[in-house]
Design brief:
The complex is a heterodimer of chains A (about 525) and B (about 230). Chain A is built from 16 helices and 22 strands. Chain A is an alpha/beta fold and about 525 residues long. Chain A has 2 domains: about 450 residues, 3-Layer(aba) Sandwich (Rossmann fold); about 70 residues, Alpha-Beta Plaits, CATH 3.30.70. The radius of gyration of chain A is 22 Å and the shape is globular. The N terminus of chain A is likely disordered. Chain B has one domain: Porin (Beta Barrel). Helix content of chain B is about 15%, strand content about 55%. In chain B, a hairpin with an 8-residue loop joins β4 and β5. Chain B is elongated. The two termini of chain B are about 30 Å apart. In chain B, about 40% of the residues are buried. Classes of the chains: A alpha/beta (about 525), B mainly beta (about 230). Chains A and B meet through α7, α15 and α16 of A and α2, β3, β4, β5 and α3 of B.
Chain lengths: ~525, ~230
C-alpha cells in the first residue's frame, strides 16, 4: 500500500510541480509513526461549534482528493494485490499454480485472517485477476482489495440538542435498561477512537493537492501530534477501553485522526448522567477501538495500510476473537463488487455470538448504490443493515435504499431540517484537526487533543444507535445475535409501506418497546 | 391479596347469611325413603379451592412459567322450588407473578421485568341437583352459565394504558357432586370448563401464540353450608 501511495504521490511530482522535493522525499527511509510519550496536556474542550461556517459533505470523495494526484481517483480497489481464500483441500502446487495464473509471486497470510493476499503486477486489473482466481476449483472466493470509507456526511456544527434519543423513546428505554454494563464490549471498527492521551511522531513526506488544480500543500516533515482521550468517552488508560487495535498502523494505538470514529463511538456509549456533554445509547459498555479505515491525515502521514476489504475482515475477526459482543460498522463502500472476504468474517463473528450493525450507505441522492458490506445483511441472522431517518422520522435524503435495508435509526437529515437536524456528539475539534482544509499558508500539523460538539449526518450516525440498542438487549438477557435482530424487527415502528420496505426496512427501531417485551395480553 | 381477602370475606358472609336465613323445607321435617324435591327456596353458601388449567397454555407458560394454578373463591347457591333447579353465583381468584418476555423465532426469552396477572371471574350458573334415592346424602349436580372474567395484568415500567384491567364475557359448564356431612354442612367436588374467547390474543405473547381464550378447565373442592 505504501508503495502505491509513493508511486501515486510521485506522480504529482512528475507533473513538474515539486519534482525535486518529491524525489528527495522518495529517497527518505521508511517511517511509520512513533509513540513519543504516554502523557500529554489535558484534553481541550472547545464546546459547541455552532458558529462555524458550513462544511462540505464528505465521503469517499475526500479520500479520492488525495488519490486524484496519483491517477487512481475513482478506483474502488487497491492495485497490486487481490484477496483469495483457497479451499481447505488446496494443495501447495495448486496454490502456486493459482498465483502463477495471475502472474503473482507472493502469498501473504496476515493475522486475524483466514484468507491470503496474492500479489499481482501493479498494472494488472485486480477485478480480472480475482475473477480468474475465483473460477479455479481450489479457490473458495477471490476479490479485489476494495477500499472502504466512512459513511457520515458531517455538516455545520450547530448545537441544539440530541433529538435523536427522544425520537426513539430512549428516555423510557433507559428506565428499563440504563446503559448496559461493562460486561458488554462494543467494538467500533472505524477511523479510530480518541481513547488515548499521548504524543505520536509522524512523518509527512509528500506534497499533495486537496482539489484538482488546487494549491499544493507541502510536506511537513517530522511532526509530533498530541492526542487526548475524548472527555465524554472516558479517561485514557481507563477500563472503559478494551484491547484497542490499529490495522491501519499495525499497532495497538487506534487513535483517531479523522473524527468519524470518535463521533460514532459517542453515539454508542458517550458517558451519560455525568453533567457534561450529551448522552450515548449504551453509556456503561466498554469500548473496543479497532481502526480499520484511514483518515486524510493517515494518508498524509503515509499509513502502511488502508481500509481495504481484507483489513475490514481482519478487524471483524479480531473483535470477535477478543470478546466483543457487538460490532459497529459505520463504514463501507459503494463501488466495486461483492465482498466475500468481509461477508465471511461477518458470518464468523455472528457465529461467535457477535451482533453486527452496518450502515446501508449514503448514496440515495447520488445513484443509490448499496454499501457492498451491508448487502449480506438479509442472509445473516444477527447482522443488520441500517438506514437513516431525519428529525421528522422520514427517510433521510441520502439513506441508500434497497432490499438489504433492514432497520432505520436516526442519522439526521440536515437538508430537511437544517444543521441541528444532524446527530450531535463530541469529537475532535475540526478547526485544529483539518488544517488541510485551510489555505497552504495556514496548513500545519493537526491536533487531536482538542474536542468540540458537532452535528454529523449519515447512516454512519444511524448505525451506532442500533449497536447501542443491541448492547442494551444483550444486557437484558437477549444474547443471541439472531434473536436480537429478530426482536428489533418485531418491535420496530413500521414506516413507509406496510411491512418491510426498501426505504425503512422493517421500520424505525423502538428500543423501549423491545426492551419491555411482551406481557401475557399486552 | 386485597381482592382475595375481600372475596373470601364475601364468601364467609354469604355462608353466614345462608345459615341465618335458610328456612327448613316442610317435606324434609319427616323421614322419607326418597329425597323429596324441594318445595321452597333454599339458600346455601360455599367456599372453594381448586386448580385451574388455562387453555392459553403457551402464553401462561411463557410469562408466568406455568399455565395452571390454585384458585380460591366462594359463592352462594339458591335452590328454587322446582325440583332440583338451582342458581348459583360465585367468584374465584387466580393470581401469579412472572416476567415479561421476548418471543423470537419460537424461543421465549425472559427479560426480568416483573409482571403480575390476576384473573377474577364472576360465574352465574343455573343447574339441576339430582336426588338419589339410595344415597340421599350424595347430590350430583350439573350447571352452566355466564362467566364474566376479570383480567388484570400489571408490569413494571408500564405507562398509562399499558397495563390491562378489563372484563370479558364467556360461558362455563360444570358438574360435580355434593356430599352432605350434616344437614347444614357438606363437601363437594366438581369439574368446570370455561371458555372466554377473544379475551387474549390482541397483544402480548398471546398474540404471538395465537391464543385468545382466557378460559380453561378446573377441578374444585367445596365446603358448603346450608341446605
Amino acid at each position: 500500500m505504501t508503495v502505491w501511495k509513493t508511486a501515486g504521490l510521485v506522480a504529482v511530482l512528475g507533473a513538474g510541480l515539486l519534482g525535486a522535493t518529491g524525489a528527495g522525499q522518495e529517497q527518505a527511509p521508511r517511517f511509520t509513526r512513533q509513540l513519543m510519550q504516554e502523557t500529554s496536556l489535558p484534553a481541550i474542550d472547545r464546546g459547541l461549534r455552532d458558529q462555524d461556517p458550513p462544511r462540505p459533505a464528505r465521503g469517499r470523495d475526500d479520500a479520492d482528493r488525495l488519490r486524484a494526484q496519483a491517477g487512481d481517483a475513482g478506483l474502488p480497489y487497491v492495485r497490486g494485490s487481490v484477496i483469495v481464500k483457497f479451499k481447505a483441500d488446496a494443495t501447495a502446487a495448486g496454490i502456486t499454480a493459482a498465483t502463477r495464473q495471475v502472474a503473482g509471486d507472493t502469498v501473504d497470510r496476515s493475522g486475524w485472517a483466514n484468507f491470503d493476499i496474492v500479489d499481482i503486477p501493479d498494472g494488472a486489473d485486480p477485478e480480472a485477476a480475482a475473477a480468474a482466481l475465483g473460477a479455479r476449483p481450489d479457490v473458495e472466493y477471490a476479490q479485489p482489495r476494495y477500499r472502504n470509507y466512512a459513511m457520515s456526511k458531517p455538516n455545520d456544527p450547530l448545537y441544539a440538542n440530541q433529538w435523536n434519543f427522544p425520537a426513539i423513546d430512549m428516555e423510557r428505554a433507559w428506565d428499563i435498561q440504563p446503559g448496559a454494563t461493562s460486561s458488554i464490549i462494543v467494538a467500533v471498527l472505524d477511523s479510530g477512537v480518541a481513547f488515548h492521551t499521548g504524543t505520536f511522531r509522524y512523518n509527512s513526506r509528500f506534497p499533495f493537492r486537496m482539489t484538482p488544480g488546487g494549491p499544493i500543500y507541502p510536506p511537513l516533515g517530522i511532526v509530533d501530534v498530541p492526542f487526548a482521550a475524548a472527555p465524554e468517552l472516558g479517561a485514557s488508560g481507563s477500563t472503559r477501553f478494551v484491547l484497542p487495535r490499529d490495522f491501519i498502523w499495525d499497532d495497538n494505538f487506534p487513535v483517531d485522526l479523522d473524527s468519524h470514529g470518535t463521533h460514532v463511538t459517542g453515539t454508542v456509549g458517550q458517558l451519560t448522567n455525568n453533567s457534561q456533554g450529551g448522552a450515548g445509547m449504551a453509556y456503561n459498555v466498554r469500548i473496543m477501538p479497532v481502526k480499520i479505515i484511514q483518515g486524510t491525515w493517515d494518508e498524509i502521514f503515509s499509513s502502511p495500510n488502508e481500509g481495504t476489504d481484507d483489513v475490514v475482515a481482519r478487524g471483524i475477526r479480531y473483535a470477535a476473537d477478543n470478546g466483543a459482543k457487538v460490532i459497529n460498522l459505520s463504514i463501507g463502500r459503494s463501488a466495486g463488487g461483492p465482498a466475500p472476504v468481509v461477508t465471511d468474517a461477518m458470518r464468523y463473528a455472528v457465529g461467535k455470538g457477535v451482533f453486527i450493525a452496518v450502515a446501508s450507505g449514503n448514496t440515495r441522492d447520488s445513484g443509490n448504490q448499496p454499501n457492498r458490506l451491508a448487502q449480506a445483511a438479509p442472509d445473516i441472522a444477527g447482522m443488520v443493515a441500517v438506514g437513516a431517518v431525519g428529525r421528522t422520522l422520514d427517510s433521510a435524503y441520502y439513506s441508500t435504499t434497497g432490499p438489504f435495508v433492514e432497520l432505520s435509526a436516526p442519522g439526521g437529515d440536515q437538508r430537511a431540517g437544517g444543521t441541528t437536524a444532524g446527530i450531535l456528539q463530541q469529537t475532535l475539534d475540526l478547526d485544529l484537526l483539518e488544517t488541510y482544509e485551510k489555505p497552504p499558508s495556514q496548513y500545519g500539523p493537526p491536533r487531536a487533543d482538542s474536542f468540540a460538539y458537532y452535528y454529523f449526518q449519515g447512516t454512519s450516525m444511524a448505525t451506532p444507535h442500533v449497536s447501542g440498542f443491541a448492547a442494551l438487549l444483550m444486557q437484558q438477557g437477549v444474547t443471541s445475535p439472531a434473536a436480537i435482530e429478530a426482536a428489533m424487527k418485531q418491535f420496530a415502528t413500521d414506516k413507509g409501506a406496510a411491512g418491510r420496505d426498501d426505504l425503512y426496512g422493517y421500520g424505525l427501531i423502538n428500543p423501549r418497546a423491545t426492551l419491555r417485551g411482551l406481557g401475557l395480553a399486552r | 391479596m386485597t381482592q382475595m381477602t375481600q372475596m373470601l370475606r364475601a364468601s364467609v358472609l354469604a355462608m353466614a347469611a345462608t345459615m341465618i336465613w335458610t328456612m327448613p323445607a316442610t317435606a324434609q321435617t319427616r323421614t322419607s325413603p326418597r329425597p323429596a324435591p324441594s318445595r321452597s327456596v333454599e339458600i346455601g353458601g360455599y367456599a372453594t379451592v381448586g386448580h385451574f388449567t388455562f387453555a392459553a397454555s403457551d402464553s401462561f407458560d411463557a410469562v408466568l412459567g406455568a399455565h395452571t394454578g390454585t384458585i380460591l373463591g366462594g359463592g352462594a347457591t339458591v335452590g328454587l322450588p322446582w325440583g332440583g333447579l338451582f342458581v348459583d353465583i360465585g367468584a374465584w381468584q387466580y393470581s401469579d407473578e412472572g416476567e415479561r418476555v421476548l418471543r423470537v423465532d419460537g424461543v421465549v426469552i425472559p427479560l426480568g421485568i416483573p409482571v403480575e396477572v390476576t384473573v377474577v371471574p364472576l360465574e352465574i350458573s343455573a343447574g339441576w341437583k339430582f336426588r338419589l334415592r339410595r344415597l340421599p346424602k350424595l347430590i350430583p349436580y350439573a350447571a352452566g352459565g355466564y362467566s364474566s372474567m376479570g383480567y388484570k395484568e400489571t408490569s413494571s415500567f408500564s405507562a398509562t394504558g399499558e397495563d390491562v384491567d378489563e372484563r370479558f364475557g364467556g360461558y362455563h359448564l360444570r358438574g360435580g357432586a355434593e356430599f352432605k356431612l350434616t344437614r347444614w354442612l357438606g363437601v363437594a367436588g366438581e369439574v368446570s370448563w370455561t371458555t372466554v374467547p377473544d379475551a387474549l390474543g390482541e397483544g402480548g405473547v398471546s398474540k404471538t401464540f395465537n391464543e385468545d381464550n382466557l378460559g380453561g378447565t378446573s377441578f374444585r373442592a367445596r365446603i358448603t353450608v346450608g341446605r
